[in-house]
Amino acid sequence: MRISRLELAFPAGAPGRALILGADGAEDLSPFDPASTLIVEGMAQHHDALKARGFRVATSAEGSFDTALVTLPRAREAARARIAAAAAHLAPGGALWIDGQKTDGVESVLKEIKALGGISDMQSKAHGKIARIENPSRIPADWAARPLSPAPGFTTVPGVFSAESVDAGSAMLAAALPEKLPTRIVDLGAGWGWLSAQILGRPGVARLHLVEADHAALECARANVTDPRAMFHWADARSFRLPEPVNGVIMNPPFHTGRAADPGLGAAFIQAAAGLLTTAGRLWMVANRHLPYETELARHFAEVAEIGGDNRFKVLTATGAGARNRRTR
Ligand SMILES: C[S@@+](CC[C@H](N)C(=O)[O-])C[C@H]1O[C@@H](n2cnc3c(N)ncnc32)[C@H](O)[C@@H]1O
Fold it and tell me: What CATH fold (topology level) applies to the domain 3-143?
């Protein structure tokens, strides 16, 4: 747990106005006083949980801070962008700290920063490291986030899912969709919007709800999908509800929580999809072939079938959600 590193780095608590870039909703942040700490966190569920704990939480940094703590994300370009953002919001004489797991590449990032201007107060604990950057003003300006172009007409930023190219699973799902689609559709975990754009390219769709927990990805989707039939929802798909049921859900669900594989996340997406659909409505989804989603699908839907795939992915469809409730429309 990284609290042990934070306690070593801030034995008397983090001084002054503090900025944290990236935090888990449930983690122990006791060295940080909620009254003087701003947390920048874009994943909806963590954002909401931190807010409920009394922290000020935002999706981008604003103001200047005496202490800034960067939690390293896994993607190198996203890590650099986060460090540049923290350096840009540091008050004169402020302290910039980097914290990360070894598996997220903290050692190579710290090595790079050491060569730029030095690091100090390094602590190693709980499979990770924390260190202070000696000369934050030496962080190169070109570390700031720069837009990427994963496909013609689409833009993304480092760190969002499949930022540099169209995901192969999403491409397979799009190719397996029927020519005509239902009128009201939800794309659960819509990312930067490529799959949604393919859905809107099929006849029949009157309304498409894009549901995505990652604020940065959803902002990309807003830029990429300008069709007026699209509605954007920054939300945790697992608890997302609409006032009226829809007749189609299309999804390429995540199966990782952080670095750890978590098939439970996909199962929760299936449950959420069933809760959004009419009984006559239909789910289409893609999954890595090894993930045992058929059992979860059978729990929530009357009919389940595999309609495509290869040795890596399978495309599944299901209908008859909540058949016992008879909500057909
Ligand atoms: C496998 S990706 C698919 C993205 C997109 N549909 C595409 O085709 O590129 C899964 C998406 O689910 C999002 N996600 C992860 N957990 C989520 C949650 N609890 N609620 C909503 N979206 C979530 C991820 O940020 C990611 O964009």
Answer: Rossmann fold (3.40.50)
pTM value is 0.94
% of residues, the chain, pLDDT over 90 = 92
- Region 310-321: mean pLDDT is 97
Look up the CATH superfamily of 148-327. Vaccinia Virus protein VP39 (3.40.50.150)
3-143 and 148-327 have identical folds? yes
At CB < 8 A and 24+ separation, what contacts does 223-226 make? 223/155, 224/153, 224/154, 224/155, 224/192, 224/193, 224/194, 224/197, 225/193, 225/196, 225/197, 225/200
| Residue 217, ligand 1, Cβ within 6 A | yes
For residue 198 and ligand 1, the question of a CB distance below 6 A is answered with: no
**Domains of the chain: which residue ranges?**
3-143, 148-327
User: Which residue's C-alpha comes closest to atom 4 of ligand 1?
Assistant: 191
Q: How far is the CA of 212 from the centre of ligand 1 (A)?
A: 6
Q: How far is the CA of 218 from the centre of ligand 1 (A)?
A: 10
37 CA to middle of ligand 1, Å?
28
